[in-house]
Amino acid sequence: MQEYLELTIGAILVYNFVLSKFLGICPFLGVSKSLDTALGMSGAVIFVMTLASFVTSAIFNTILHGPVQIFGREFELSYLQLIIFIVVIAALVQLVEIILQKLSPALYSALGIYLPLITTNCAVLGVATINAGAARGIFKSTLYGFFAGVGFSLALVLFASIREKLKLADVPKVFQGMSIALITAGILAMAFLGFSGLC
Amino acid sequence: METVLIAFILMTLSGILLGCIIGAAAKFFFVKSDPRIEDVNEMLPGANCGGCGKAGCSDLARAIVAGECVPGSCPVCSLAVVGRIAAYLGVDAGSSVKKAAVVFCGGSNSKARKSVNYNGINDCISASLIAGGPKDCRFGCMGLASCARVCPFNAIEVIDGLACVHSDICTGCGKCIESCPRKLIRLVPETAPFHVYCNSPEKGVEKKKNCDVACIACRKCLKAAGEDQMKIEGFLAQVNYDNMPGADVIEKAACPTSCISSPENHFPGTLKKENAAR
């Protein structure tokens, strides 16, 4: 039980994807102008990360982890891990988008527009490689993927809320726009540093 | 050599496999959508910068086709591209009159009286919620630049505590109209020779106490202009933009408070033309 607790708290707070691992900065800065779009993006990221970690860990545990037999000979394929993950995740998101559009127009209108934006996102690839690096099982990987997505969402929603307030603040001219956003992101990351050592 | 071969074969196979799966899914789960969305998306820059406030170019394309946004919402597109999109969708095809936003207030810091020293949040909506901003007139421009911040084209500049629209940069997207808590900004034809720069419905005497350049409803302009070219509502003269008077009315009317002015002469001080660089 403690193991799972560590996994979740670690993914959300201590090793937060955006603020500690610095993965997925592009949507973090790009889609954080208003809380509405940030919430939509968060939903999409949680969805894709969970799905991607499930599929990639399934591939990792069946093919890439340890030698495979092809035509009676043994091959070690772990060096193909990165490229296979990229291809599989990109194809997966594309597939999910097509299927969602047909089967669930409501979910598609909520997530659909964000899906192409995170197809090749580093946070999604990051969760897959971290899972593979720790040699986690399928269930644990999926769990980690989900909570990593939750951690990303937490950071994104916090940041979007701050930026909405920042619009009203009297910012010195040289710091206006992206510079104050980056400074804020840095302070936010420092605040999250306070969680380090928790687990 | 064997490793290279295996990697090559494996990646080719998985590429073909995944391609086939996606192709089959696209065929099987095909959904008919408005082809115009795709075409507008092609015309947009495709940078997914989010500058329009939407979640990427395809979302903006959908919004433009659905009529939620005007083609000019994209701050990155050149005017030519905006024009192409508008022409493609047939938006605004009926009226070719270019519209520009105008702030209907002339009360700059030197002309409108101030009795409070406003130190609050630098935002018109916040100011209107608590104290109504620095100026005594409850209907005029507060000069806290909410409209200037929301303008995607940097066409609004606050000069001497008064928001002024550069009509040559203004695309008529109308974003500023919603940002103004006092509803001072309206879209009018860019060709209008002059405007009545006042918005206060108060009586002339009351207005004159607060501002040097208020419309006191003396009706001089109504007499100078042709029939139905100007109208008066309450204590406020207005230009009838459907039947615009000529530029000579400014001279003939000799507005006693200089409330009537051509857009060029209206700006207090000189315009910063470097703003137009965008």
What are the salient characteristics of this protein?
heterodimer, A: 199 residues, mainly alpha, two-stranded antiparallel sheet, 8 helices, 2 strands, B: 278 residues, alpha+beta, 3-methyladenine DNA Glycosylase II, Chain A, domain 3, Alpha-Beta Plaits, 2 domains, two-stranded antiparallel ribbon, 34% helix, 11% strand, disordered C terminus
Question: Can you offer a commentary on this structure?
Answer:
Chain A is mostly helical. Chain A has helices spanning 2-14, 25-30, 35-64, 81-103, 105-111, 122-133, 138-166, 178-193, and strands spanning 68-70, 73-75. Chain A has a two-stranded antiparallel sheet with strand order 1-2. In chain A, strand 1 and strand 2 form a beta hairpin. The longest helix of chain A has 30 residues, at 35-64. Chain A is globular. Chain A starts with a helix and ends in a 6-residue tail after the last helix. The mean pLDDT of chain A is 87. Chain B has helices at residues 2-28, 35-43, 57-66, 79-89, 124-130, 146-150, 175-179, 204-210, 220-224, 249-253, 263-266, and strands at residues 99-103, 156-159, 162-165, 185-189, 195-196, 230-233, 236-239, 260-261. Chain B is elongated, with a radius of gyration of 26 Å. In chain B, 35% of the residues are buried. With 278 residues, chain B is an alpha+beta fold. In chain B, helix 2 packs across helix 3. Chain B has two domains: 35-89, Electron transport complex subunit B, putative Fe-S cluster (3-methyladenine DNA Glycosylase II, Chain A, domain 3, Orthogonal Bundle), CATH 1.10.15.40; 99-267, Alpha-Beta Plaits, CATH 3.30.70.20. In chain B, strand 6 (230-233) and strand 7 (236-239) form a beta hairpin. Chains A and B meet through helix 3 and helix 4 of A and helix 1 and helix 3 of B.
